Amino acid sequence: MSHPAADRQQTHTPVALIGFAWTLVGVPLAYGLYNAVKAASALFS
């Protein structure tokens, strides 16, 4: 009797696709954080 997880075929996500996805999410996130910190610093100065 084999384990069901061992019967599944492993899939591999290309590294370029992972990098692209992180860039797609990371750039707007960094821009939003930068603007939030910039606006918050104006409140305390």
The beta-strand count equals: 0
Q: H/E order of the elements? A: HH
Helix content: over 70%
Largest sheet: none
CA gyration radius, whole angstroms:
21 Å
Number of helices: 2
- Which spans have pLDDT < 50 for at least 5 consecutive residues? none
DSSP strand (E) fraction?
under 5%
Mean pLDDT: 90
Q: What general form does the structure show?
A: elongated
SSE-based structural type? mainly alpha
What is the terminal-to-terminal distance? 68 Å
Short description:
The chain has two helices and no strands. It is mainly alpha-helical.
Any chance you could write out the topology, listing elements then pairs?
Elements: H1 4-7, H2 15-43
Descriptive labels:
single chain; 45 residues; mainly alpha
Please explain how this structure is put together.
The protein is an all-alpha fold. The chain has helices spanning 4-7, 15-43. The chain is elongated, with a radius of gyration of 21 Å. The model has no long low-confidence stretch (mean pLDDT 90).
